[in-house]
Amino acid sequence: MVTVEGLKNKNEATQKMKDHLTHLQTHRMTPQAVHFDEGGEFILKS
Amino acid sequence: MIQETAPYSPLQNRVAERLNHTLVELARAIINTQQLPTFLCLHTVQHEAYLHNRAHTRALDNMTPLECWTGEKPNVSHLREFGAPIWILHQDLHKGHKYEPKLQQKIFVGFDNGSKSVKYYNAETRKILTSKNYCFLTLSDLSNMQPTEGIEIELSPDVLHEGESEGNTPQLDVHGSHEHDAEAKRKWHVDNQYDQSDNETRNLQK
User: Fold this and answer.
1) Where are the domains of chain B?
2) Are B66 and A29 within 8 A, CB to CB?
3) Chain A residue with minimum CA distance to B54
4) B interface mutation test: which of A4, A24, A37 has the most B CBs within 10 A?
5) What is the DSSP-derived secondary structure letter of residue B159?
6) At a CB cut-off of 8 Å and minimum separation 6, what does B200 contact?
7) What ipTM describes this predicted complex?
8) CA neighbor of B19 nearest in space, from B10, B8, B31
9) Cα nearest neighbour of B44 on chain A
């Protein structure tokens, strides 16, 4: 199952991911695995 | 369980990278074939993902990903070509004149997941909008339409030109001929004379 979401900035990635997981849970679907490509966009820059 | 990969090594994330490659290549082909603006690339990739979820794959024993995910076979009867002309009901009907057309032709750019509506591209405003009031009307639909019964147009033998028979399709006489013109004028005068005489007799009867 493929879902494509558009991002204007990379800092929206965390919120989009949370929203998508919440959307799946409300439809009683749970992902078995989550793949990230290094996941640099999920790391907060402080 | 968390499985990490080495930095700058997309080969270790081959499943996701292969799918990205497939979707992007398809999107590029669609944009160039339909001659659409390149900023529609996101919607093109989303549409490709929509189709990918509804196409069977060997990895799932010829099931579709959506069927594997939800347990139900997806309906594909509504699928249309990306970039196809779509007719959208005018959103602000009260603003225009009463007799202006209600439908406007736009470009179809995908389905909106979950809301039973379509996304379309308005080339005038360069915006992507969503509407539920739409219809697809193609040339094949028009050719499949049955003609209305009782309306038949036949040319009388008097109108046929030389070289035409009743079975042949009448063609336009591009070059024309003076003989035909003279004969047509004579017929027109004769008909007018009959019409005038008819009118005179009617006036006399009154």
Assistant:
1) 10-76, 80-141
2) no
3) A1
4) A4
5) T
6) none
7) 0.82
8) B10
9) A4
